[in-house]
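Subject: design request, 74 residues
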């Protein structure tokens, strides 16, 4: 039950495609659930470099080949 008709950013679509929940991502990365929800819903929202780095590091740790630029403009 991912992406239930909600507007999604590139990051949100990535999470949906790979069946990664925001709660799971919050635990892995140490980024607040509210921050993840905000950045997963709109391309206009982006994380701070610190939180973005935590997210990318957690995704890479789990085997995904992603960079900050894949989701957000630097």
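Subject: RE: design request

Done. Sequence follows.
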């Amino acid at each position: 039950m991912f992406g239930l008709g909600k507007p999604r950013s590139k990051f949100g679509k990535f999470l949906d495609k790979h069946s990664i929940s925001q709660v799971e991502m919050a635990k892995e990365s140490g980024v607040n659930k509210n921050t993840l929800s905000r950045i997963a819903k709109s391309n206009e929202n982006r994380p701070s470099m610190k939180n973005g780095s935590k997210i990318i590091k957690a995704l890479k740790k789990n085997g995904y080949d992603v960079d900050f630029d894949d989701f957000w403009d630097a």
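The domain at 10-68 is CATH 1.10.260 (434 Repressor (Amino-terminal Domain)).
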